[in-house]
């Protein structure tokens, strides 16, 4: 064999097989990374959607004045999300101090309700739960000043 023929031999079969194996491993790693990213995006989307549904439910109930003690359950998002709404009277620390005879400011008229909404969902993976908690200040009609006094800014 001449010197020129030896320089142009090319790659052996073993070298080509090793190159393809490395390429396959690299492609597998890239696909794994991309699929993990897609799963995280779906999970974030589901959590965001659950938060929007939950906040909307609480805001709607508060605006309609439907914040009475008790427990309700339901679904939204075509059954993808299950919710449990719990409303309890809130023990105001200011009232406890006033009852104990401490020098505490007078509480505002009305009552406080502790509103807790738990939203559950599971999209082909482990069950997820979002918990939203807030206080709602309901106003007792008896504690408000009469309309004429309120218009002048006076208290009875």
UniProtKB/TrEMBL annotation:
Keywords: Cell inner membrane, Cell membrane, Membrane, Methylation, Transmembrane, Transmembrane helix. InterPro entries: N_methyl_site (IPR012902), T2SS_protein-GspI (IPR010052). Coiled coil: none annotated. One of its GO terms (cellular component) is plasma membrane. It is found in: Cell inner membrane. PROSITE patterns: PROKAR_NTER_METHYL. The chain crosses the membrane at residues 12-34. It is a single-pass membrane protein. GO terms for biological process: protein secretion by the type II secretion system. PANTHER family: TYPE II SECRETION SYSTEM PROTEIN I-RELATED (PTHR38779). Belongs to the GSP I family. This is Prepilin-type N-terminal cleavage/methylation domain-containing protein. It comes from Coralloluteibacterium stylophorae.
